[in-house]
Amino acid sequence: MRAMRGMRGITVGMRSAVRGALSSTAHLLEALLGSQRPSGATLQSLLHEATEAASSPLLKQPPSGIDSLTEIGMYDGALAEILATAKYRHWPEPLENLGVRLGQEVQATSLWLSDSIEQDRLPWLVPVPSPKFRSWNRGLDHTAILAAGVASVIGLPVRSLVARSWILPQMQLGRASRAGVGGSLRLRRWARRSLRRRPQVLIVDDVMTTGATLSAMAGVLRQGGAQQVHACVVAAGRRTQESIPSEASAPISWGVVRG
pTM for the full model? Predict the structure, then answer.
């Protein structure tokens, strides 16, 4: 009898373990598939609320070397969480929507762009590059997706005029190290020829914090022949290290998990 009871206990324990494993697997699959993430009209509504809540009446001065800066809002709250989740957890749809929203902002507010179009001098649309390994590891190139969204609105040609060698992610760099980020950027071989044809450039990035990356991009492009360098970013971040979500602690909302 004791042996039978022992066997029953083992069987019940095994069933409980199997149920637990199946439940964990279901949650894992749900997280990997992102079934809880908003999409379509729901996502657009969420992004609208996030950008409205993150808007700031204070206009930031463009970083050194940048002629004008266009932004949607502050890197804070829901907008920061959506951006970080999309970037680090392979969620391209918000980036596509935010690229379109950024293009609309540039089209509505940039007088220099209207003048360029009237003079038939369309600028190049240049995404801030990521190291190839980092884009591969994340499963997407977030600035390329944003640039495509901007281009779909204002009709500018996208060109990757600048390449980037591997460096530590910016959230792991101190302020002094960020100031030296330009050493990882280089002009592509054919970029000078492109800049002779079109010496105006519009840089696209997701977030500006210290402005070091945009300044470094402007320096490299101007060395290659760019005469005007403008920039547009989804969000302007607070200039403190604590406000920037790290890759290791990226948000886990909408069915995504730390990996």
Answer: 0.74
- Give the CATH number, domain containing residue 132: 3.40.50
- What amino acid occupies position 212? A
Same domain, 20 and 114: no
Q: Is 155 left (phi over 0), alpha (psi -120 to 50) or beta?
A: left
259 domain-assigned: no
How far apart CA 41 and CA 221 sit, in angstroms, is 38
Give the position of tokens 């009709």: 155
* pLDDT tens-place string over residues 183-223: 689 999 999 999 999 999 999 999 999 999 999 999 999 99
Tell me: the pLDDT tens digits for 38-76? 889 889 888 888 888 887 655 568 999 999 999 999 998
Q: Where are the beta strands (DSSP E) in 103-210?
A: 124-127, 162-164, 185-187, 200-208
Sequence letter at residue 156: L
φ, ψ of residue 144 to 5 degrees: the values are: -65, -40
Question: Is residue 256 in a domain?
Answer: no
Query: Which residue segment(s) compose the domain that 10 sits in?
Result: 1-36
